[in-house]
Design a protein that fits this description.
CATH topology of the largest domain: Rossmann fold
Mean pLDDT: 89
Number of domains: 3
Distance between the termini: 35 Å
Number of helices: 14
CATH architecture of the largest domain: 3-Layer(aba) Sandwich
CATH class of the largest domain: Alpha Beta
Structural class: alpha+beta
Helix content: 25-40%
Oligomer: single chain
CATH superfamily of the largest domain: HUPs
Number of strands: 21
Length: about 475
C-alpha cells in the first residue's frame, strides 16, 4: 500500500514516520534530508515537508542539491534551489559531483552513482533521505527492468523504504501520479525547473516515458497504477524469497559468511541455489551477477570435478571453489597471486605496518603467545611473501617443514597463500602471520610475547 493517498503535509509526515517505524522499529531519526533537484517532483516534496512541522518530532529538516555539471544551466539551477530553500526556510547543502561516465557505463548510471555517493556522505545512522520518485517513475522502472529481462527483484522496482548507506531512503510519493503533482504545484503556484535532458529520447527511460507509457495510457488510463501494483506484488515475492534464502544460508554457510558448503549447496534445487547465491552476494554487498553468469556458476563451478579449482569473476567479485567450500571474495588484478613475491617491507614491530591493497600488520603483547623480544636483538625484521621453497621449524615437529605442505594441511585456499605475510629475522623465516611461529623464537607459556595480527582486505568489497 502506498504511503499516502493524497497530498497533505501532515498526513505525509505521519505516513513516513509510520513506515519507518514498521521497517525499522528501533530506528531513531534526528535529521531528514530532501533530495532537491529543483524539478517538479522534488519541488512538491520539499514544499510538503517545509509545512510538515517535523521539528515537533525533534527532527531537523534539510535539503541537498546535487550539481552534476552536465547542463549549461547547472549553476543557475543551483541558485534557484538556494533561493526557494531560503524562501521556505529549509537549510540547503549544495554538492558538486563528477558525473562523467566511464567506458561501458551509461551517462544515466554514472550520474546516479555520483548522486548517491553524495547522498551517502550526509545520511548518517540517525538520518533519512526523502526522494521524489512517484507512481509514473515506478511504472517506467518496472518496464525498463522488464525489457532488460530482470527477475522478480528487478521487477519489484523501487521500494518505499530501503537502506541507504548508514541510514534509510524513503520514497513517499510512489502512490502519487505525475498528473497529481502537477495539479498540486499549480494550486500552490510553485516554480520549478524543466531539465531539457528529460526530453532526450536517446535515453531509454525518456523513450519509455514519452513514447511507450503515453501509448499504454491511451488504451489503459490507469496503467501506471496497475504497474506499480505489480511492482508491489513482486516486492512481496522477493521478501518471501529472502526469507527462504536466509534459512538456507544458515544451513549452508560453512565457517564464515564468505564461504558456503558445496555439498549442502548442491543438495538444493537449481532455482533455490540461484536464490541463495543472489541473497548471499547481496548480504556481502557484492554486485549481483547476470543470469548468464549465475548459470555458469551452477554448471561450470559447482558441477566441476573434485580435483578442480574453478573461478568465476565479474565486476570486482570472484566465486571460487576449494576443499568442499564455495567462496565469494573481492577480485582485482592488484590483489591476485603472483604480485607479492618480490615485495619486502622493513618493520620495527611497534608502529602498524600498512601494505597497499592488502592490509595492515600490528603487534600486541600477549602472555604465552608470539615471539620473545630477546630473540630479535640486533636482527633486521622484515615482511616478505612466498617465492617458493620456504621452510620453517615448528614446535612438535622434527626438522624443517615446507610451507607449501603446511598450507595444504591447513586447507588454506591456494589464492590466499601468496598473500599471507611472512615474518623474517634477517633471512630466517620465523613466523607465518596468522598461522605459525617458528619454534626457536616462540615464547614459553610464562613469557610475554609479541603477537602479530593481520587485518587483511581479503573479505572486503574493494568497489
Amino acid at each position: 500500500m502506498s504511503l499516502i493517498t493524497q497530498l497533505d503535509a501532515l498526513d505525509i509526515k505521519r505516513a513516513v514516520l509510520r513506515s519507518i517505524a514498521d521497517y525499522a522499529p528501533n530506528k531513531v531519526i534526528k535529521s531528514c534530508w530532501i533530495a532537491y533537484s529543483g524539478g517538479l517532483d522534488s519541488t512538491v516534496l520539499l514544499h510538503l515537508f517545509a509545512q510538515s512541522r517535523l521539528a515537533s518530532e525533534g527532527i531537523c529538516l534539510q535539503a541537498i542539491h546535487i550539481n552534476h555539471g552536465l547542463q549549461a544551466d547547472a549553476q543557475q539551477w543551483a541558485r534557484h534551489c538556494r533561493k526557494i530553500s531560503q524562501q521556505w526556510q529549509v537549510p540547503l547543502t549544495l554538492v558538486e559531483v563528477n558525473a562523467e561516465n566511464h567506458r561501458g557505463e551509461s551517462p544515466e548510471d554514472a550520474a546516479r552513482k555520483a548522486r548517491y555517493d553524495a547522498f551517502n556522505t550526509v545520511v548518517n545512522p540517525q538520518a533519512i533521505l526523502l526522494t521524489a520518485h512517484q507512481q509514473d517513475d515506478q511504472a517506467e522502472t518496472l518496464l525498463l527492468q522488464l525489457l532488460r529481462g530482470a527477475g522478480p527483484r528487478g521487477l519489484a522496482a523501487m521500494p518505499e523504504v530501503a537502506p541507504l548507506g548508514l541510514g534509510l531512503q524513503v520514497r513517499p510519493l510512489l502512490g502519487i501520479s505525475r498528473q497529481q503533482l502537477e495539479a498540486y504545484a499549480r494550486d500552490h503556484q510553485l516554480i520549478w525547473i524543466d531539465d531539457p535532458s528529460n526530453q532526450d529520447r536517446r535515453f531509454t527511460r525518456n523513450f519509455i516515458r514519452h513514447e511507450i507509457l503515453p501509448q499504454l495510457q491511451s488504451r489503459w488510463p490507469s496503467v501506471s497504477n496497475t504497474l506499480s501494483r505489480s511492482a508491489t506484488v513482486c516486492a512481496e515475492t522477493i521478501s518471501l524469497c529472502d526469507e527462504l534464502a536466509s534459512s538456507d544460508f544458515s544451513d549452508v554457510m560453512d565457517g564464515h559468511e564468505h564461504c558456503l558448503s558445496l555439498t549442502k549447496l548442491l543438495a538444493l534445487s537449481a532455482p533455490r541455489q540461484r536464490n541463495l547465491i543472489i541473497y548471499w552476494l547481496r548480504k556481502l554487498n557484492y554486485p549481483v551477477p547476470s543470469y548468464a553468469i549465475l548459470h555458469t556458476i551452477q554448471t561450470s563451478l559447482l558441477q566441476a570435478a573434485k580435483d578442480r579449482q574453478p573461478v568465476v569473476h565479474w565486476a570486482g567479485v570472484a566465486i571460487r571453489r576449494f576443499a568442499g567450500g564455495v567462496y565469494a571474495l573481492p577480485y582485482s588484478s592488484s590483489t591476485q597471486a603472483g604480485n607479492w613475491s618480490t615485495k619486502s617491507f622493513s618493520w620495527d614491530l611497534v608502529a602498524p605496518l600498512s601494505i597497499p591493497n592488502l592490509g595492515t600488520l600490528s603487534s600486541a603483547q600477549v602472555k604465552g603467545l608470539g615471539i620473545a623480544a630477546q630473540y630479535l636483538a640486533e636482527k633486521k625484521i622484515s615482511i616478505r611473501f612466498r617465492q617458493g621453497g620456504e621452510q620453517i621449524i615448528l614446535a612438535g615437529r622434527s626438522g624443517h617443514q615446507r610451507l607449501k605442505k603446511l598450507f595444504q594441511e591447513a586447507q588454506v585456499p591456494p589464492w590466499e597463500r601468496d598473500k599471507i605475510p611472512l615474518l623474517y629475522a634477517d633471512d630466517e623465516l620465523i613466523a607465518v602471520v596468522g598461522y605459525w611461529y617458528g619454534q626457536a623464537y616462540q615464547v614459553t607459556n610464562a613469557q610475554q610475547g609479541i603477537h602479530i595480527v593481520f587485518d587483511d582486505l581479503s573479505f572486503r568489497n574493494e568497489n
